[in-house]
Amino acid sequence: MQAIMETLFDVVYLTAVVTLGILMIKDANGNKQYTLFGIMAVVLGAGDSFHLVPRAIALCTTGLENYTVSLGIGKFITSITMTIFYVLLYYVWRKRYDIRANQGTTIAVYLLAATRIILCFFPQNAWTSANPSLAWGIYRNIPFALLGLLIIILFYKSAKQHSDKSFRFMWLTIVLSFAFYIPVVLWADAIPLVGILMIPKTCAYVWAVWIGYSDMRNSRKQVGA
C-alpha cells in the first residue's frame, strides 16, 4: 500500500510542478520574473526526480535496501538542485520588487549556496552508504537553512511593505518546507516514520509554485481586461 500511495503522490507532484514550470516559461511573454519562476519550478521537479524515481522503483520492486547507491546519488543531486532553487527564488524576489542594490545580500546568497554545494561534495557525506553520516547531514544543511531563512525574511518584509497579496504567503511556504524537512534530517534514520513529513514538505513547495503560476495567470487576465 505504501508503495502505491507514495508512488502516485510522487507522480502527481513531479508532473504538477514541471508542467506549471513549463507553462510559466511558455506564457511569460518576456516577463523575466515569471520566466525565472518557471525555470525554478522545472529545476525543483527535475532535481527531485533523481531521488523520487529510484525510490518509487525501489518501493515497487525489491525494496529500498537494494537501491542504496542510486538513492544516494539521487539525494546528492537533489541537494544541489534545491540549493539552485533558492538562488533562483532570490532573483524572483529581486525582479518582483525591482531591487537594484542589495549587493551584500546577493553576496550572502552566493556564499551560503556555494558553501552548501561544496559541503555536499565531501566524501564524508557517504551518500551511497547504507549508513550515511548524520553529522555531515547536519553540516551541509546549516548553510542551506540559513539561505532559506534569508529568503523567508526577504519575502516577508517585501510582501508586507508592498501590500503584495499574491505573494503574501510565499515566506510561509518556505517556513513550512523547512519545518517539515529539519526533523527528517535529524531523526528519519532512527525513526523511519518521521520520513512521512516529506509529504507536507513537498506540498509546501507545490504551494510556492502555485503562488507564482496563479500570479502570472491573474496578471494576464488584468492585461486582457
Structural account:
By secondary structure, this protein is an all-alpha fold. The protein has one domain (about 1-225): Rhopdopsin 7-helix transmembrane proteins, CATH 1.20.1070.10. It contains seven helices and no strands. It has helices at about 1-25, 30-60, 70-95, 105-120, 135-160, 170-185, 200-225. Helix 3 runs parallel beside helix 5, helix 4 runs antiparallel to helix 5 and helix 6 (about 170-185) packs antiparallel against helix 7 (about 200-225). The longest helix is centred in the N-terminal third of the chain and has 29 residues, at about 30-60. The protein is globular, with a radius of gyration of 18 Å. The termini are far apart. The model has no long low-confidence stretch (mean pLDDT about 95).
